[in-house]
Structure to design on (517 residues):
């Protein structure tokens, strides 16, 4: 009976994983469609509109095309590593979703080290990139992967510091607790006390996912496609999928950390509060995340690519000092209990003991 | 002072926000896309598309194998061989080929032709399916001319006052 229980529990977890990943893959497909449409609109074009009504089936056609293509292994490439790299890249970007809470109780793994786990998962993806670049036996791929590695490592630090700010403000590493700490109203969310950190976290997030204007590792106009030049078919699709899954992840995390996650934005406003009470928290979370996803596409449509030394300068000489400075400000903010964000966490409420 | 202004501008992302505002406005602007097969942009009678060899109204081919087009062609896309025609001994081309991969559609062949034989029509949406199809032979060029003669004649007449 014990064994049966184990099996059913395992199956239930697999079912939950599928319930997260299947919508995620679908969301990725339609993010590419939204991206092409939005960038088209911003350039006064209309984007894809031929496959299906208004082009709605375009992502499906893209997927079918990629599935049917041959996976080419270049001569001189290290075949094992070449085929392992996309898996190494996509596995962490999917694994990170385990700790993402979609509602107060709706989370696959309610761990207390959620924030740390997320940081680990987003940084481990760089191995996939490095291995892909090295195993391809191609100069462009190697340059792309080197760029990607140094960029991810640099922005990891600023991002880590930003998450320290979130951790201080939320008083927990559990993502659910961080969101609960923002309960109250839209003005209780951490975007106000953490505003500089929010901006830096967001920009570092864009840099981490190798999105424009930080898409040097791909750099179409300089190094063709960077670390995945040599990939075709499904192996390429995995890289693509992981990049977009990371984008969605960063968007959801921004909503969770700074914009109250699944909390109703009209909370605390009379009448509107009650009128929107029926909306499930997941919808709010997804709406907030969708806005940040839109922002990523918007950034790509607006800004030209950074020069390499400028990226490094921005990461090391601007972001890290600014985050560290704001962490100090935040320390005083929390300890002196300014405003209403950190009630019961300052010196006064601890009787001056700490 | 300008240093502080610079810091202010860069830390408050002034210019980045201006850029974002611009793309935001463009998001709602009227789209200029032309849905090609259904919609087409207007064309000039001087449009230079695929080539054609014309005939006189009595059915006689215009080309007299003077080879001016071959000489003037900057891309060396035209190949002509000439000889007396067997039936009446007049000078005609035995071979007239244009390599459409070399052609740059400059229209010099049309300009140089003393008998208005080689012309460029306004047909621009055509394709080749096999290697070698890109070389148009005399027969193919004459066939294009026969097929679009009405349109070609009209375009030439429209352009004539300006020549």
């Amino acid at each position: 009976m014990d064994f049966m229980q184990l099996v059913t529990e395992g199956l239930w977890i697999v079912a939950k994983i599928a319930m997260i990943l299947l919508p995620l893959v679908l969301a990725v497909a339609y993010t590419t469609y939204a991206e092409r449409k939005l960038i088209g609109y911003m350039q006064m074009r209309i984007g894809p509109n031929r496959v299906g009504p208004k082009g709605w089936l375009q992502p499906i056609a893209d997927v079918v095309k990629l599935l049917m293509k041959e996976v080419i292994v270049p001569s001189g490439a290290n075949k094992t590593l070449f085929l392992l790299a996309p898996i190494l890249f996509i596995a962490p970007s999917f694994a990170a979703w385990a700790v993402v809470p979609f509602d107060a109780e709706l989370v696959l793994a309610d761990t207390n080290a959620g924030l740390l786990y997320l940081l680990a998962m987003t940084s481990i993806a760089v191995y996939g990139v490095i291995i892909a670049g090295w195993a391809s036996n191609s100069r462009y791929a190697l340059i792309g992967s080197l760029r990607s590695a140094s960029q991810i490592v640099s922005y990891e630090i600023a991002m880590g510091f930003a998450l320290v700010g979130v951790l201080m403000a939320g008083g927990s590493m559990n993502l659910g607790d961080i969101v609960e700490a923002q309960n109250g109203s839209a003005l209780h969310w951490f975007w106000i006390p953490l505003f500089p950190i929010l901006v830096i976290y967001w920009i570092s997030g864009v840099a981490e996912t190798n999105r424009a204007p930080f898409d040097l590792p791909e750099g179409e106009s300089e190094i063709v496609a960077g670390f995945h030049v040599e990939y075709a078919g499904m192996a390429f699709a995995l890289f693509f999928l992981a990049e977009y899954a990371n984008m969605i992840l960063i968007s959801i995390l921004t909503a969770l950390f700074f914009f109250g996650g699944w909390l109703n934005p009209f909370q605390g406003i009379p009448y509107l509060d009650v009128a929107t009470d029926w909306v499930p928290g997941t919808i709010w979370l997804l709406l907030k995340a969708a806005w940040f996803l839109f922002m990523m596409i918007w950034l790509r449509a607006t800004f030209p690519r950074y020069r390499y030394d400028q990226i490094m300068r921005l990461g090391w000489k601007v972001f890290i000092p600014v985050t560290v400075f704001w962490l100090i400000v935040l320390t005083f903010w929390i300890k002196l209990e300014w405003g209403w964000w950190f009630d019961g966490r300052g010196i006064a409420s601890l009787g001056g003991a700490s | 002072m300008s240093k502080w202004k610079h810091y202010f501008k860069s830390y408050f992302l002034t210019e980045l926000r201006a850029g974002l505002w611009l793309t935001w406005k463009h998001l709602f602007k009227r789209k200029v896309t032309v849905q090609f097969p259904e919609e087409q942009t207007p064309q000039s009678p001087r449009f230079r598309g695929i080539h054609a060899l014309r005939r006189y109204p009595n059915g006689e081919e215009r080309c007299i194998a003077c080879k001016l087009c071959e000489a003037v062609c900057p891309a060396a896309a035209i190949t002509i061989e000439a000889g007396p025609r067997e039936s009446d001994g007049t000078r005609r081309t035995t071979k007239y080929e244009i390599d459409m991969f070399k052609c740059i559609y400059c229209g010099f062949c049309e300009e140089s032709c003393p008998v208005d034989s080689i012309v460029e029509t306004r047909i621009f949406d055509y394709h080749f399916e096999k290697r070698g199809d890109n070389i148009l032979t005399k027969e193919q060029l004459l066939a294009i001319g026969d097929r679009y003669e009405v349109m070609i004649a009209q375009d030439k007449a429209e352009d004539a006052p300006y020549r």
